[in-house]
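Work through what follows:
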Amino acid sequence: MGAYLLRRLIQSAFILLGITVITFGLLYVLPADPVRQIAGRSATPEVVENIRRQLGLDQPVWVQYWTYLSGLLQGDMGRSYLQKTDVATLIAARLPATLLLMVGAITCELIFGLTLGVIAALKRGRPLDTGLMVGSFVAVSAPQFVVALLLLYVFAVKLGWFPIGGYGTFAHLVLPSVTLGIMGAGWYSRMMRSSMLDVLRADYIRTARAKGLGRLRVILRHAMPNAILPIVAMIGMDIGIFMGGVVVVESVFGWPGIGQLAWQAIQRVDIPIIMGVTMVSAIAIVLGNLLADLIAPMIDPRIKLR
């Protein structure tokens, strides 16, 4: 276990290093100029150059990158060009809202996706199976802003069950979580159906049935623990996705997460914030996948870490 963790951590460090190189390079070649965003359209060339020099943007790109990387290794993500605040402070202020939305969305994904996937597998080839798979395809394909606006119109405007937007109570959490959960549930249901069908054809399932075990016990005790293994890896990926924030959903519902922070930074070409959110998302994806790999042997002891 120790050697495996050490090897994975070393691999993760190289992955994160590569992400900083790619992201920094892409931001450097952007046609937008962050200095112009700060100085304004009416600024003189002297003012623009003075700001560029103060921010260190007049240095060669490799010098800028090395300065950023040196600070990052010391836990310094830099300062926002426009807000004049440490990026780590800005992200930390938005992180609780994003974590809350992440938990709510993953919970909705699992409840909807696993339930529908198991039902579809048990009703294989029947109209219910077809209907559920068509519904999952629609859920995966539907644009998030369409789903968000539809849920807002029906449940917030027409029925008045939930607030239109904001943050702070459980009622504010429901619609954003369901919006994200609907799309994720489509993937989970299709994956769970396929995995469940494979498991139900396994020899040990036939043996359990031959011993006279009830159908519900066979499904819950023997089939689902094995069928759910592919889902664990998907959850690890979702952790990173939601930690990065889902920009559209957070914007529609006015959710003050780091996704909304990233969108505002992109509009203003605030490079330190963009880099900071990207790094937080990348770290979350790496740790989420590592966590998924460590949990898998606990679910199925036949899986060995190598």
Observations:
- Residues 87-122 form the longest helix (36 residues).
- Residues 79 and 86 are 4 Å apart (CA to CA).
- The mean pLDDT is 79.
